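Service request form, structural biology core

Requester: graduate student, group of Dr. S.
Request type: structure prediction, single chain
Budget code: on file
Notes: please return the result as structure tokens.

Sequence provided:
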Amino acid sequence: MSVKILYLNGISNIPNASGEEKLAKANGKKTDNEGLPPSWYRDQGLRPPVSAEEDEPEYDEEGRVILDESDIEEVNVDVAIPLKMFGGCEDLTSGATLVYTTFGYVYTVEETTEEITSYVEYLSMTWWEHKKADFNMFLRRIKIKLGIIKIPAKRIETE
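Core staff response, request fulfilled:
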């Protein structure tokens, strides 16, 4: 038996060039003329010199660097989730969808809940259910060609 995998288009946010610069400064790579980072001066109870304190990034209450919207770039990534690990999904107001796994991972993807649900149902079908659906579609096409089933056609008016 093969492993059935749910393939989705994920959305990820990564820092762009200006965001990378802010993160590099936050990691202590910014130093003064003598090679000392601003954090060393603060630990000693001193005020850092101006050369070491230029453009220092802002931090939140947990000590993480705060990046602006202009410092973040949105990229698309491929997400492959084994069907056994699929836990559920939930639509967001931004148009994206959160996909939950049974291991606790959460992915943000482009597909809607309806698309994901129908894809999961399709992957969950047995071989016999696939053949039955294919045969029903085949019979429907024959009935349409024979005129047993009538599909309202779009009327095109010519002048």
